[in-house]
Sequence to fold (598 residues):
Amino acid sequence: MIPLARRNLLAEKAKFLTTAFGTGVSILMMLAILGIYFGAINAAKAIPQNSGAKYWVVQTGSADMYHTFSILPAGMQEKLEQIDGVEKAAPLINHATRIKVGDDLITSAVIGYEINSGLGAPWDIVSGQNIKNYGEIVVDRSMAIKNNIEINDIVEVGNKTFKVVGFSGDTNTFVFQYVFIPLKDALEAFETSHTVNYYLLKTSGNVDKDTLDKKVASLVKNAMVKESAEISDANVAVIKTSFLPIIAFLIIIGLFAGMTVIGVTVYTTTSERAREFGVLKAIGIKNTRLFRIVLQQAFVISIVGFFAGVLLYFLVQFLAYKWMPELTFALDIKYYVYILLLTLLMSVLASIVSIRKVLSIDPALVFKA
Amino acid sequence: MNSLVEVKNISKTFGSGHTAVKAVDNVSFSVKDGEIALIMGPSGSGKTTLLTIIGTLLSPDSGSVFINGLEVTALSKRKLPDVRLKKIGFIFQSFNLLSSLNVLENVAIVLELMGTRSRKAKQQAQKLLEELGLGNRLKYNVANLSGGEKQRVSIARALVTNPAVVLADEPTANLDSKSGHKVMELLRNIAKQEGKGVIIVTHDMRLKDIADKTFWIEDGKLREHSPLQ
Ligand SMILES: Nc1ncnc2c1ncn2[C@@H]1O[C@H](COP(=O)(O)OP(=O)(O)OP(=O)(O)O)[C@@H](O)[C@H]1O
Ligand SMILES: [Mg+2]
Fold:
């Protein structure tokens, strides 16, 4: 079969490339908006998910780590460890504050964790090393890049100074970044030796949450047990309610813009060859074959555009990683498939509009000079 | 000899009221196999309209057209593409080649539309193009051909499906005299060697030399030129 659709597209390579690139940019826009959105969602989940503890003890009424507060008495870890099935209990401080880097004050969330237990520790050290001693700090990588913080720099948290020993990945939530210090230092720095925010429980075997909850409540006043997944869900809900309307709006605009580009492209590609389609009709082509040609043209543009868009998206991520580290992207493979399907759907819709035009072409025009 | 084309009392009016133009007015004639009919007439006299109706691209207001015995004016619109594909070859003044295909593909695609397999379609197209002296142009981009070459490609395209009837609108108008002569010779062979019915619409007086009958059309009315005129 002579690939007329492909020949039509490749007859003008520069135009085809421009078209594919235009489609690619639209695809990039959709992928990037979705990627940023899911990046923010992932960031919201990161701390609870990577805490190393399946259960968190929180103050009754506390849900997420942003909008609801949790204050618990300090020094309860040994009692908590007595509970059947609890292997390890470790306090955690989560304290939003401004840390001093040189002359700058940077708002960040300070995590104070028990360095011997490892629960609540940064899980992805991208350079340097994890905390081994008191007086050390690990800061979020994007925060380090943005503020020119280097390993071995000294920063101030509360009334204490810390030496930067490593950068952590996956600890940037757009709005603020996490830094990590030893629990003991955090209690001193914030002068809160009587209270902590959470206890992280590492359990063994099949521990029933309700039983655990009852035991914890009887040991610690106003405390309850939550699965770390519940906390990440609550965090995500906060991000969603504050972020989602904007993102949803952008995604819809992005989709419309992208789809319009694809639609217009397919339509003009067809219209340009109206006369030649008229010739084929005069010769006696079947309408089904005409439709196939138009559809093939649309699919080729869409698929090449899609892969161009994906490549651009990877490029943008790579550049952002270097130059805009506060942007984090995350996109599940299924969303690529959705966007591809949407793109194909749009090219079918545009093809229908195009084919109506082709069908309306009067083949008698072939006799006009 | 059979009548390959039979036109009976065809009329076509464009527009209505006092802007109405009677482009074809009660025209009847027939063309047998091996015969070349020439239709001449001033600009706007209805030549193209008549040819378009015979080619089933336009339906007349009244009258009927038979192609190879089949009353095409009685067929539903849906069946017409197939009639054109199998029974009619078109040759246009402006060639109307597909610009994104090469010479061979422009001819082979018509066979593919008929359901011929790609490889066989190309073989047949190549054979015909070689006969028409285009054997060394097969892979050429059609845009790079001379006018005469383009018209020979379009003649190959019209003939490759072995149609009963060939309709040509001003086939020599865009050609220099040498290319024009070559095209005339080909059209003559189509009728005489292949036994097809050929209808040519033209201003070009030279074409009278190859015509078996010549018609004059004016204001949509057709009359036959006597050979003496
Ligand atoms: N689609 C149309 N709608 C309205 N009027 C038309 C249409 N097609 C042709 N006509 C008119 O019908 C008449 C005959 O036109 P036609 O194209 O058949 O002439 P022609 O003999 O082929 O002329 P030429 O030698 O200039 O090609 C003209 O007056 C033309 O304006
Ligand atoms: Mg004309």
